Amino acid sequence: MDAIVLQILNGLDKGGAYALIALGLTLIFGTLGVVNFAHGALFMLGAFCAVSFKKLLTLAEVTKVPSDLGFPVTKEVFYLEKWFGQTGLTIIDFAVPLAILISIPVMILIGLAMERGLVRHFYKRPHAEQILVTFGLAIVLQEIIKAIFGANPIPTPAPQFVSGSANIGEWLGLGQFVVYPWWRLIYLLFSLSVLAAVFSFLRFTTWGMVVRAGMQDRETVGLLGINIQKRFTIVFALAAVVAGLAGVMYTPILPPDYHMGMEFLVLSFVVVVVGGMGSLPGAVAAGFLLGILQSFASMNEVKSIFPGIDQIIIYLVAVIILLVRPRGLLGRKGVMET
Questions:
Q1: Which of 22, 61, 100, 106 is most buried (most C-beta within 10 Å)?
Q2: Where are the domains of the chain?
Q3: Can you tell me the distance from the alpha carbon of 231 to that of 233, in angstroms, rounded to the nearest whole number?
Q4: Is 34 helix (H, G, I), strand (E, B) or coil?
């Protein structure tokens, strides 16, 4: 039971990342009809927003201070520590969650620039051309990141007071030996909060209702005098923000590097297809489902019977589901079906 609980939690926090990225992919495909292979790069850019913010907060000056032996030694002093004392150190410690405030406007600008500058010219082009051009954009973005930050992963720790583990077993009455990292629990709660916020926005606001109507019948909404194109541009920016926030909060779990976006992109596209192209609930459900399956497949007991199953389980499940139900779990009838 202990192992089952831990694997479910592992799957849920990993599934949260898949669901957030897949949600943005589905929003873009459902509104604009664009297969955006640069969406994983937005996840990566969000992560490097956190890295950049941490580097900004840790700018320091080199000063000379006397050592215990009497001669001076050089020491780096953070400007924030110099100006604000312990408060400055606390701000540095909370660099990752505070980076959310910086990443939102940055990701909005990146999303708008991507949609206005490139994607909008491929709305009515074949999906193959959309994939090629957005995949090329993703490669350009990751090479830019590589040139600026280097090829090695950059550790970006969580705040110190949540760096330990929570006693999940005690909460659930399973004993004192079932522990789980605090930050992974925070990431899971954060993912659920963002998903709830996006769905509430689309479901309970007039603006969101118009977007959902446009996803179903774009021409009819346009005939009503609504500038649906403008709203879809904002949806693209919203999808970029969701992916960026997922990347920001994932940095303490996986140190960012320039190719992390491509790794999550492939898995997230599988999630979208399994959930159903254009289905927002399907993308979220498939994200968590595949995250849990991948977590259980990574157990040593399972890998001893099926070596390498953790590397292929997602694709294996995708093949089975698409053979039985080509439109995906919650896809609309006729989508991806012949």
A1: 22
A2: 2-324
A3: 5
A4: coil
Per-residue pLDDT averaged across 106-112, rounded? 94
37: left (phi over 0), alpha (psi -120 to 50) or beta: alpha
The values of phi and psi at residue 77, to 5°, are -120, 120
Residue 142, classified by CB atoms within 10 Å of its CB into exposed (0-12), middle (13-18) or buried (19+), is buried
Contact 157, 94 (CB under 8 A): no
The rounded distance, in Å, linking the Cα atoms of 96 and 243 is 15
Average confidence score pLDDT of the chain: 86
Position 280 scores a pLDDT of 86
The pLDDT value given to residue 101: 93
Interval 120-171: pLDDT, tens: 888 878 888 888 999 999 999 999 999 999 989 999 999 998 888 888 777 7
Residue 235 has what pLDDT? 87
pTM as predicted: 0.89
List of E strands, 4-112? 60-66, 72-78
Between β-strands 72-78 and 165-167, what pairing exists: parallel, antiparallel or unpaired?
unpaired
Give first-to-last CA distance, the chain, whole Å: 44
